């Protein structure tokens, strides 16, 4: 593999798929999100409906991006965000949530929501979303993260 993230196989060039972890307590959301992203041919997606299981499966450097819901049982998305960032400071994270949920949690988690809104390695994806917007936001976060990693910058 060369530095540009491209693999050369039998004289042809293909782009390496980005690894995404998707977490939402609703099975249908995880299924649809995984299916839509994998059908683009750009991403490999591991889906989880349990935040604790997702956390125990997370390994620094394994994923390019984590997409997570805010409102989940056991551990909400903001708690999970902090744990992932403690394990891998450069991991890209997108919140998949209803706008009202994010605004509601802004009152409770003001420090974290302010950090998320300033962080180029994070984004908020509104439910429902269309495929084009979803992929555009994901690529923006992954691109920002990959730029930092290639420059050796740690957040």
Account of the protein in words:
The chain has helices spanning 27-39, 51-57, 77-87, 99-108, 110-118, 131-151, and strands at residues 6-9, 12-15, 18-23, 43-48, 65-69, 92-97, 122-126. With 155 residues, the chain is α/β, with parallel strands linked by helices. The strands form two sheets. A five-stranded parallel β-sheet has the order 4-3-5-6-7, sandwiched between helices. Helix 4 (99-108) packs across helix 5. Residues 1-13 have low confidence and may be disordered.
Short description:
This protein is an alpha/beta fold. It has helices at 27-39, 51-57, 77-87, 99-108, 110-118, 131-151, and strands at 6-9, 12-15, 18-23, 43-48, 65-69, 92-97, 122-126.
Biggest beta sheet summary: 5 strands, parallel
Strand content: 15-25%
Output mean pLDDT.
Answer: 80
Order of helices and strands: EEEHEHEHEHHEH
The helicity comes to 40-55%
Oligomer: single chain
Number of helices: 6
In terms of topology, how is this protein built?
Elements: E1 6-9, E2 12-15, E3 18-23, H1 27-39, E4 43-48, H2 51-57, E5 65-69, H3 77-87, E6 92-97, H4 99-108, H5 110-118, E7 122-126, H6 131-151
Parallel strand pairs: 3-4, 3-5, 5-6, 6-7
Antiparallel strand pairs: 1-2
Task: State the main characteristics.
single chain, five-stranded parallel beta sheet, 6 helices, globular, two-stranded antiparallel ribbon, alpha/beta, 7 strands, disordered N terminus, 155 residues
């Amino acid at each position: 593999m060369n530095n540009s993230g491209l693999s050369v196989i039998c004289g042809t060039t293909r782009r390496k798929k980005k690894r995404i972890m998707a977490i939402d307590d609703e099975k249908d959301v995880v299924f649809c999100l995984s299916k839509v992203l994998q059908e683009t041919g750009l991403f490999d997606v591991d889906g989880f409906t349990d935040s604790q299981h997702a956390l125990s499966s997370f390994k620094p450097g394994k994923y390019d991006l984590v997409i997570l819901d805010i409102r989940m049982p056991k551990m909400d998305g903001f708690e999970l965000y902090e744990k992932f960032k403690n394990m891998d400071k450069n991991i890209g994270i997108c919140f998949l949530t209803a706008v009202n949920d994010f605004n509601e949690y802004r009152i409770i988690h003001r420090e974290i929501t302010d950090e998320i809104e300033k962080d180029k390695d994070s984004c908020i994806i509104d439910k429902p979303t269309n495929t084009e917007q979803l992929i555009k936001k994901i690529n923006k976060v992954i691109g920002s993260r990959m730029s930092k990693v290639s420059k050796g910058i740690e957040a």
